[in-house]
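Reagents: none. Just compute today. Probable iron uptake ABC transporter periplasmic solute-binding protein.
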Amino acid sequence: MITWTRLTAASLVALGLAAPAVADEITVYTALEEEEIAAYVEAAQKAMPDTEINVLRLSTGKLGARLLAEAGNPQADLIWGWAVSAMMDPQILDMLEPYAAEGVDVLPATFRGEDGKWFAPIGYMGAFCVNTARLEEKGLPMPSSWEDLEDPAFKGEILMPDPNSSGTGYLHVNAVLQSMGEEAGWAQLEAVDPNMAQYTSSGSKPCKSARVGEYTVGISLAFTAMQSVEEGYPLAMVFPEGGVGYELEASGLMASSDNKEAAKAFLDWTMSDDAIDLYQQYKALITIPGVDASQAAEDAGLPADISTILADIDFVEAAGNQDAVKQTWKDKFGR
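Predicted 3D structure written out:
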């Protein structure tokens, strides 16, 4: 378990120091990236000094499996920043209790559950990470769509995450299928498959491999692309024509929690000004009206109105079809 805590009372007593009382302790399950978790928890801990915040970070799929395995004896007090397409599993929703976090009413209805069980002030979106130096060296054209990646010249030059192990992989596949339709979507993915060097288990790895010149194109995350551009890598962030896939990162209160007041206070913090300031550092997709993306996002090419590049995603459909899509993917592309 990745855990951020203050010194415990026992350790302070052992040092001969006075120990402040810790009134509450909460266990938080999340699929957020580790580097952002550290920044968020540090800020939340300052806002909640009497609450010990324990965080377990798992990938999207593993977090769901953990919750279901613990269904008879839940261990988490809340879920924080988890793919809404996973959260909408009826078995998971049954574990949640409606709670209107302070400030959540500013979110458009699209970004919060009608039943009040989840809300999503943030999300993540896909992008093609294109190494411009390798592109020029290989004499390859700049891709602007999935169709462009069919070009035999890209054979062995593309990495993509496997949707069976990566939420990022699933958001890309889901966007293609929902934008093009099932038949045309699978045909498109099959047309690109011969050029794939590898399907990875990590959503960020394709971009990180492309930025250092191991491959030309990494089908990955916009945040990793933005970060790479900011750090000076020869990388272009490309949003495929026809709509880029995205996912909402939802949070909700576990009905079984024994520490609901502290858990609610944490959920309130996720909508606070302090949290929003941090989202601007780490997120390409912020659903809170009036909040601008970071300068780094702008410099990397993120449009001011991201709705112009996002695919039209039905998250209920994405959740319902997830098992079937993953199985079809495995049957077609499993290696």
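The chain has 14 helices and eleven strands.
Action item: order primers for follow-up constructs.
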